[in-house]
Amino acid sequence: xxxxxxxxxxxxxxxxxxxxxxxxxxxxxxxxxxxxxxxxxxxxxxxxxxxxxxxxxxxxxxxxxxxxxxxxxxxxxxxxxxxxxxxxxxxxxxxxxxxxxxxxxxxxxxxxxxxxxxxxxxxxxxxxxxxxxxxxxxxxxxxxxxxxxxxxxxxxxxxxxxxxxxxxxxxxxxxxxxxxxxxxxxxxxxxxxxxxxxxxxxxxxxxxxxxxxxxxxxxxxxxxxxxxxxxxxxxxxxxxxxxxxxxxxxxxxxxxxxxxxxxxxxxxxxxxxxxxxxxxxxxxxxxxxxxxxxxxxxxxxxxxxxxxxxxxxxxxxxxxxxxxxxxxxxxxxxxxxxxxxxxxxxxxxxxxxxxxxxxxxxxxxxxxxxxxxxxxxxxxxxxxxxxxxxxxxxxxxxxxxxxxxxxxxxxxxxxxxxxxxxxxxxxxxxxxxxxxxxxxxxxxxxxxxx
Length: 450
Hints:
The structure is a single chain. By secondary structure, the protein is of the alpha/beta class. The chain folds into three domains: 6-142 and 263-325, FAD/NAD(P)-binding domain (3-Layer(bba) Sandwich); 151-260, 3-Layer(bba) Sandwich (FAD/NAD(P)-binding domain); 345-443, 2-Layer Sandwich (Enolase-like, domain 1), CATH 3.30.390.30. It is 32% helix and 24% strand. Strands 1, 2, 3, 4, 5, 6 and 16 form a seven-stranded mixed sheet that branches. It has a five-stranded antiparallel sheet with strand order 17-18-21-20-19, with helices on both faces. A four-stranded parallel sheet has the order 10-9-8-14. β5 and β6 (128-137) form a beta hairpin. The longest helix has 26 residues, at 81-106. It starts with 5 loop residues before the first strand and ends in a 20-residue tail after the last helix. The model has no long low-confidence stretch (mean pLDDT 96).
């Protein structure tokens, strides 16, 4: 008989923690899961799911305008933002109940409260202590707000998802994917949006053509993007929030969103008690099998600050369970992971950027196209799709795919499968086009553009 209460004890009921706990229980392990909030984590409760629902809602504004070009008579219309938020909250409640039923059905013991690591095999929750052969930390990330006077007056992505009324003027701090997505959502429903970015372009780290094309499309919808802009202070004026920039300029806003990144959620976990190695942002350092510097403690998901995506957290969690309780050594491949930015238009990307490809391969062929999608020949909207393939010329393998346009995420997901299998440009060229579609451009680009 084991002297431990559990074989696996997890802190954090987000995507990674739930996936690892359920899989471990299915493999016969005794599993406990500690959570002091609703079950579901960032993705379900404060990220991907609620944000995508707001994206869908905002897209109808453009669809109603475009419909006129196709013969529809569209009368007066407006969005009831409060009703949308209520509908979104009902859906999150439904998903939370599904997660609870899944845990119960899989035999995982849910322990309510905040967990603190007090030893290599022990966690304290309130006045109770629980032991386990293996501990797993999956506490995700949290919004990071810059330190400036009045920072407490700014909202983060957590709060703005539940804001019950539309502002007239919104200032967004930050040019990453969170800032870009919320700027697009609010601009599409009629809010005047000003986005302040410290660098010269949005989406640092993405392919240069993606960054420039999306920024051009966003500006065309009325979003004011101010590059090289940095907030100095925020204060509440008589009738509006006053955003003072470095240099002295003052902007007025009804709402300010601090979308300036996320950091690992490690505060109060007691990591010092077991001497876990952490990185410069507080992230828990792990090896390729999600093991920390303490052999009995593991970590998955955003708290490790590796690849901060929900499917990666799930794969790492399930892979860990397989390694610990499935009698096989399991290592998740973090290469070739597709990702999307649910901006408007959407971004889908997989593989290397052009600069990364040129740094890695001696000769790189770039295939790029921009075109007006068929939908807009009648809608009248002056919007372009951008697609780009990067090819290692020596092997002919496609090493990068980038798209800005409607359904980019759906299209790039399928391309990622081909790239995972080592698809060559010759195989793309030999694939029959599906006409008429935007995706056919991926198999009809014949001449390199650079």
